[in-house]
Structure of Cysteine--tRNA ligase:
Amino acid sequence: MPLYENQELKIYNSLSGEKEVFKPLTDGYVGMYVCGPTVYSNVHLGNCRTFISFDLVFRYLKHLGYKVRYVRNITDAGHLENDAETGEDRIAKKARLEEIEPMEVVQKYTVDFHNILYKFNNLPPSIEPTATGHIVEQIEIIKEIIDKGFAYEANGSVYFDVLKYNESNHYGILSGRKLEDMIANTRELAAQDDKKNPQDFALWKKAEPQHIMRWPSPWSVGFPGWHLECTVMSSKYLGDEFDIHGGGMDLKFPHHECEIAQGQAATGKNPVNYWMHANMLTLNGKKMAKSTGNNILPKELFSGDNDVLSKSYSPSIARFFMLQANYRSILDFSDEALGAAEKGFHKLMDAVALIPNLPTSKNSSVAIAEWKQKCYDAMNDDFNSPVLIANLFEAVKIINAVEAKKATLTAEDLKELKESIHSFIFDVLGLEAVTALENNQDSERLANVVELLIELRAKARANRDFETGDKIRDELAANGILLKDSKEGTTFSL
Ligand SMILES: [Zn+2]
């Protein structure tokens, strides 16, 4: 029997503003779509937090026994600089500045994105479609929306008619905004604007002569509006109605609001049952922004090469730190908080390492089954990873008490404790034991030891004790540490 039959998972649904019992459309299967990155620059840490949050969701659903189809797109066209759909295409602009092809920009930053998420131990999604790979489908859905009377053409561009849509539907259902307020708060349309109303958004934009990313369509040579790709790719791979849609909090409006409107207009169905939004990351109490310098890239975090933090932190520590907060809360990155997470992480891993050698007894003085259900209760409560982690630290206490012979466990309970801890730490939270090289402190210690051995080897060689000298070199090599002799002395690589 799959685990999900015994566990009642509740998800905070942004659409209702409440935690709701999760019921997938098809028993045992989950369709999940998460808005992926616009690949025009290195992925920033705030985005990583969003994707780590949804990796936790993906992992827990799988752990519960669901077959999950997780679709996360790559935006490689159509995302303009401003939310008001003005300015250059972000990718085309980068291509112009770097004097390379737009697809080179896309390739470069897609690779960066994958590398960084791999370091954070995120599982890859089941399908990772691109906007440019779905232009045909986007044109088809625009035709449908026009046919249903919810979009109009103007000067080669096509716009979604928000006022018309709102007559029979609710534009603002997700963000809680009222169309009347939106209208009252917007400025007049500029004379050159083709839109009927400022709230209308582009489904297709006619390309200006200088716009290099362009495709033919029935209306003009142009490009799709940014919101459309997610409607097209989610419905293509998950159906007109699917279970979970996620993304960063900043995408709730207008992006996700527009997705609902487009889906509803094209099919007459509400596309998504559970909307989930991950909160943002701040740095030293302030919003991260390149312009103010209050910013740090993941690779700068891992290498320690930055002006914000005093030392480097491994991806596992950073992931553990992020999971110590609920995905719906704002999380602040600081030296102090990361340092505390690092200590906690090692305490947890040290306890895990003790488990195989723990003594067993005829009776248990601790109720392991109850402890295990508390872990599930935490995750069933809208993926509450900080409470799960607090329960794992309860297990650390149990392990240490058994080690010190102040508590007892039967062989069966010990097995259950071990299996549960392993699945929660490694499968659900997706943490990895930090290797010596990954952990900065340990690698510093290792380097000191190697330096000492190099010194001893030099001494042995000076005394013509070549046997000892070679033994040091060979043993180090056998452990992957290569010595290189030169006129300047001996160096090593790990
Ligand atoms: Zn999206």
Notes: The pocket of zinc ion is lined by residues 35, 230, 255 (CB under 6 Å). Residues 440-462 form the longest helix (23 residues). The two ends are 47 Å apart (CA to CA).
